[in-house]
PAS domain-containing protein
Amino acid sequence: MARSLNLIVNYMNHWVTHLPLVSALNIKDILSPKSSDKEHTQNMLTAISQGTHWHGALHLKHKNNDEVWYRTIFQPRLDKNTKQTVYSVYSAELTNTISQSRQYKDMLMALDRSLAVIEFSLDGVILNANDNFLNGVNYHKSEILGKHHRIFCEPSDVNTPAYADFWNTLARRATA
C-alpha cells in the first residue's frame, strides 16, 4: 500500500484490496476512535505528515467496526513518476495477540481482586502486595515494602537452616 504525505491511499496491492479492512481512502478514517487521541497514533500521524519513517502498533477499525491491530512500518520513498515522497506500508496483523494479551491481563486482574497476593524478590525482600493480602495481615503497604519475608515469621522459624535453605534453593532454581 502506498500513501502520500497527505494521508491519502494512492495504491493498494492485491493483498490489501481483498481485505475487508479498507473502508476509506484516508488513514484517519480507519483509525480506531479509541486510539485517535493516543500518543502513539499522534506520533504516527506526525511522522507521516513530516515524511519520516514510523513503526509501531496501529489500532484500526475494520469495515464491520471490529477493532483490528497491526504491527506496521511506514517507510517513506520517492515516487519515480511524481517525484513526490510517498509511503510504502508493511503490516502484520496483531489482533489475536492483542486480544490474548488482554485476556491474560483481565485474568490477572480477576485473580488480584479475589486472592491475597504478595511478591518477593528471590532473596525474600517484599516487592509488592495487593489489598487483599494487606487487609489479611493488617499491614499498610508502606510498612512491608522493602522488608524481608521474615517479618511474617516467628524468630524461631527464621533462625533455622531450613529457612535459609528455602531462600537459597528458590534463588538457585529461578536462575537455573
In short: The first strand starts at residue 2 and ends at 4. The radius of gyration is 26 Å. Residues 17-24 have pLDDT under 50 and may be disordered.
